Amino acid sequence: MTNQRILSHFHESAELKIQSATVLAPHIAQAIEMMFSALSNGNKILVCGNGGSAADAQHFAAELVGRFERERFPLPAIALTTDTSILTAVANDYSYREIFSKQVQAFGQAGDILLAFSTSGNSGNVMAAIEAALEREMRVVALTGKGGGAIGKMLTDADVHICVPHDRTARIQEVHLVTIHCICDGIDVALFGGDVNE
């Protein structure tokens, strides 16, 4: 029974990734182009999400500031999930809904990108961050699932919505992980061309 459950996780994940590839590839390509353009113009990427999505936000920022698969200069990305003094002060003095939006207001500038993770598309603090980003003339790349929720309705034509076609949080997060690796790879190729293995 245990082995069968394990196998079903692997099979469902693999099948969803194959199914999502065709659907999401054009949107991922748009996100790469938008981020590369912003980084080339001296702008930065702010990243947010809750729980496992907070880990994805930090993972993405680490890949840009450190490296993905090849040596390069550091790229400016800030995970808004990491400063516990800011997070707890804002949550305590204002509300949990504002923990990311206050940071977007503090650090975001026109031309920057907000990369927003919400598997449900309905995370209140992520929605508030998107509102703050749009007010500051930033562009948004939203990674969601479950139909995109309220976040899908907030985005403008200038933004990018990468919505995983599934309702299970674990599977959505697994596709989000492949997506951020695709974006990191795409940025590196846009910067340097070719393939790391060439």
TrEMBL record:
It catalyses: 2 D-sedoheptulose 7-phosphate = D-glycero-alpha-D-manno-heptose 7-phosphate + D-glycero-beta-D-manno-heptose 7-phosphate. Gene3D superfamilies: Glucose-6-phosphate isomerase like protein, domain 1. GO terms for cellular component: cytoplasm. Its cofactor is Zn(2+). It comes from the Bacteria. Residues 35-197 form the SIS domain. InterPro entries: GmhA/DiaA, Phosphoheptose_Isoase, SIS_dom, SIS_dom_sf, SIS_GmhA/DiaA_subfam. Binds 1 zinc ion per subunit. GO terms for biological process: carbohydrate metabolic process; D-glycero-D-manno-heptose 7-phosphate biosynthetic process. Zn(2+) binds at H59, E63, Q173, H181. CDD domains: SIS_GmhA (cd05006). GO terms for molecular function: carbohydrate derivative binding; D-sedoheptulose 7-phosphate isomerase activity; zinc ion binding. Pathway: Carbohydrate biosynthesis; D-glycero-D-manno-heptose 7-phosphate biosynthesis; D-glycero-alpha-D-manno-heptose 7-phosphate and D-glycero-beta-D-manno-heptose 7-phosphate from sedoheptulose 7-phosphate: step 1/1. Its main location: cytoplasm. It is an enzyme of class 5 (isomerase). Substrate binds at N50, G51, G52, E63, N92, D93, S118, T119, S120, S123, Q173. Keywords: Carbohydrate metabolism, Cytoplasm, Isomerase, Metal-binding, Zinc. It is found in: Cytoplasm. HAMAP family: GmhA. Catalyzes the isomerization of sedoheptulose 7-phosphate in D-glycero-D-manno-heptose 7-phosphate. Belongs to the SIS family. GmhA subfamily. Homotetramer. The reaction produces a racemic mixture of D-glycero-alpha-D-manno-heptose 7-phosphate and D-glycero-beta-D-manno-heptose 7-phosphate. This is Phosphoheptose isomerase. It comes from Duganella guangzhouensis. The gene is gmhA.
